[in-house]
Amino acid sequence: MAEFSQKRGKQRDEVLGSTVDFLLANARLVLGVGGAAVLGIATLAVKRLIDRATSPRDEGDAKGDTTRLEESWKELNLLTATPRQQPRPPPAALSQPVSPPDPSPAAPEGPTDTGPEMSLQLSSPAPLCLTFQEKLLAFEQTHVTIPAAHVALAKQLAGDIGLELQAYLRNKFPELPFGALVPGGPLYDGLQAGAAERVHILVPLVLEAGLWSLVPGADTVARDPRCWAVRRTQLEFRPRGSSPWDRFLVGGYLSSRVLLELLRKALASCVNWPAIGSLLGCLIRPSVAAEELLLEVQHERLELTVAVLLVVAGAGPEDPLLLAWPLEGLAGNLWLQDLYPAEAARLRVLDERDAGTRRRLLRLLCGVCRRHPSLWRLDRRHLTQVVLRLGEHEADWAEAALGARFLQALEALVDSLERASLPCQLNPGVNLFGSLRDEEIDALGFALFCGLQAPEWLL
Fold first, then answer.
1. DSSP letters spanning 284-317
2. E strand residue ranges, 247-293
């Protein structure tokens, strides 16, 4: 009987041993070395309890039952003292590397409650959801704001080119009284968006007082409110030839076309731009294909377009600033009224009055339209009218309201496109949408309507 009990005990030991080996092998694969050790201690402790409960007791073993039970419970108590290891993910894909378990921190000397800290460490961070205002400010930082170093370099190059050009004009045409060349444009007024890529150099014509008068476009043969004529007066007292500008008269009017051709030929063939470029550390080439007088400047840090503009300024502060612009048809010899200086000054006054963000809004609109494949036809002239209209009617122009003002500007543009009319604020007789075709207006309106439904897509 004793032999039979011993055989059954051995068989039971072999079965339990194989079970323990199987559990330990799988625990090492799933839980790692630390988890397998904990499971092994628990399994051996339970095995010993089962052995003592099922095996027949000898007389010599009765005395040590109490001691063995105490040792077994001590082994089970090790489970509560052993720190838990972070469970490994199941090895579903053996080709993916499995990260090692995080090292357990050293046990503190005193009793501390580490539960909340562990829960904070194990919890995943919440997804970052940005508002439209935050996305708009991020777009401004990455796609609208121009580095200060690029702005300074562009201004320096424009100023140096202006000085060289002024010296050339005085030597080439000493009989023509040109004024001091003045660099300007949106870059100088803080309205340029995206890149320091365009600068104006104004070449003013000094006209004799009393010999010239400005005629509005509505009173000319072109009947165009955008254009003005510069008429020669006092011919009976100061005959033709008394003014150095009389050589550019066409029908008693100072012709912008003739002056443009004179200066175009001089810039293209007479100025030694390679020598000037080497002196300034850049490459300067006149643009022959463009109708405007353009100089393409390539520097190692930026590319710049310099527009040379012949201008006629009136004697009074209310008189318009006129540009020699390549016009067609009956307006070919007329001068185009430049409203940009007055509009930029108006925006600056409005912003200084309430520390507003009207000019920032204009830069954002320009940055969005110049990058969008369907909105590039909306240039600064169109967008300035919308901002000026909003700037005079809306009261809140703090930074926190910039997103709301942006959406209002889009709505105003859609409304103007529906009417195919965008009157100029300073010259209401000029419709800035008058040069757009119907299909172009439809494409712009559709793109803006979609942008209002999901404005984030425009950024």
1. EEE-SSSSS-EEEEE-SS-EEEEEEEEEEE-SST
2. 249-250, 253-254, 283-286
How deeply is 447 buried, as exposed, middle or buried, from its count of CB atoms within 10 A (0-12, 13-18, 19+)?
buried
The answer to whether 285 and 295 are in contact (CB under 8 A) is yes
| Residue-level pLDDT at 69 | 45
Of the candidates 259, 256, 247, 263, the residue with the CA atom closest to the CA atom of residue 214: 256
- pLDDT digits 0-9 by tens, 195-234: 988 999 999 999 998 899 999 988 998 899 999 999 999 9
Give the pLDDT mean for 319-343. 93
Average pLDDT, the chain: 81
Condensed to tens digits (0 to 9), the pLDDT of residues 407-434 reads 999 999 999 999 999 999 999 989 999 9
- DSSP letters spanning 184-197: ESTTTTT---S---
- In terms of Cα–Cα distance, which of 314, 316, 312 is closest to 324? 312
Q: Would you say 65 and 28 are in contact if contact means Cβ atoms under 8 Å apart?
A: no
Q: How many helices (H) and strands (E) does the chain have?
A: 13, 11
**Distance between CA atoms of 27 and 35, rounded to whole angstroms?**
7
Q: What does the H/E/C string look like for 346-367?
A: HHHHHHHHHCCCHHHHHHHHHH
Q: Cα(429)–Cα(396) distance, rounded to whole angstroms?
A: 29
Q: Are β-strands 212-215 and 182-184 bridged in parallel, bridged antiparallel, or unpaired?
A: unpaired
Alpha-carbon gap, residue 13 to 226, rounded angstroms: 106
Lowest mean per-residue pLDDT among 21-25, 116-120, 304-308: 116-120
Radius of gyration of the chain (CA): 42
- Cβ neighbourhood burial of 420 (10 Å; 0-12, 13-18, 19+): middle
CA distance 318 to 412: 29
Neighbouring C-alpha atoms within 13 Å toward the C-beta of 150: 19
CA dist 195 and 376 (Å) reads 16
pLDDT class for 124, splitting at 50, 70, 90?
Answer: very low
